[in-house]
Amino acid sequence: MEIVVVIIAALVFVGLGALILRLCARKRKIPRTLAVIVLILAGALPVGLYALFETKVVYHADSTALDAMQGSADVEVKKTDNGWFFDGKGTDTALVFYPGAMVDARAYSPLLSELAAGGIDCFLVEMPFEVALLGIDRADALIGEYSYKYWYIAGHSLGGIAAANYCSAYSDKIDGLILLASYSVKEISGADVLLIRGSEDKVLDIDDYTNDRKNLPDSAEELIISGGNHSQFGSYGEQKGDGQAQITPQQQRSQTVDAIVQFVGKRAQTAA
């Protein structure tokens, strides 16, 4: 999807460059060589910016994440139109996951694979330019296509804010919201809410996290993982500005999975 946007942008830049040259040519003659150089640079600019973005800005999935993308005996990983489906042993509950900003979506595959193995089928959503706020409504297509009794939406960091925005707008479609190192800038009603963050997280704005707690129902649950940090919710290495974790990525992931499975299970038990 992103490369299509880049190609379109390149064509637009070339068109603008050609228009500028034509306007300038009316006033004075422009050497053909200079005109060609201008058009090449105009087309190369968006391509160059995309390459810089991909190599210098995005946090890429590590080997643990890439291995999890291969699936396991308990979980089959299938490609969808906008991401991947982690198909586990569950049949009635699904979770849509929005990645953190500037993070390769595949970095969350270990987390979602373990959730799927625990009975919660998961949909990992790829976002335009790795920014979930540009694809807030992408959960819609999944909810419309697949038949599950319960739907949850979750996200990490900025992805959590995007997930919360979706939950706020479509509360009739979502049973629960799970925020990993994140918060909601809009009021949430009609959905269960679980907040999970690490005690060593230095990326999360704790003031915004605290102040925006008012947007959540009083019943919202919170887990602070002792020794956990911001980046270990995914598998993409250390994030700039984050605190030093005092536990391993697997330990933080295991506590996160256990909390989510328990949280999701409460609704099923109540319904029963």
Q: SSE string, helix = H, strand = E?
A: HHHEEEHEHEHEEHEH
As laid out across the biggest beta sheet, the strand order is 1-2-4-3-5-6-7-8
Q: How many DSSP helices?
A: 8
* Biggest pleated sheet: 8 strands, mixed
**Model regions low in confidence, pLDDT < 50 over at least 5 residues:** 1-7, 47-56
What portion of the residues fall into strands of 2 or more residues?
A: 15-25%
Helical content band: 40-55%
Features:
17% strand; eight-stranded mixed β-sheet; 8 helices; alpha/beta; 272 residues; 42% helix
How are the elements arranged and paired?
Layout: H1 2-27, H2 32-57, H3 63-68, E1 76-80, E2 83-87, E3 93-98, H4 109-117, E4 121-125, H5 139-145, E5 150-156, H6 158-169, E6 176-180, E7 192-198, H7 206-211, E8 221-225, H8 249-271
Parallel strand pairs: 3-4, 3-5, 5-6, 6-7, 7-8
Antiparallel strand pairs: 1-2, 2-4
Helix pairs in contact: 1-2, 4-8
Descriptive overview:
The protein is of the alpha/beta class and 272 residues long. Helix content is 42%, strand content 17%. Strands 1-2-4-3-5-6-7-8 form an eight-stranded mixed beta sheet, with helices on both faces. A hairpin with a 2-residue loop joins strand 1 and strand 2. The longest helix is centred in the N-terminal third of the chain and has 26 residues. The radius of gyration is 22 Å and the shape is globular. The two termini are 42 Å apart. The N terminus is likely disordered.
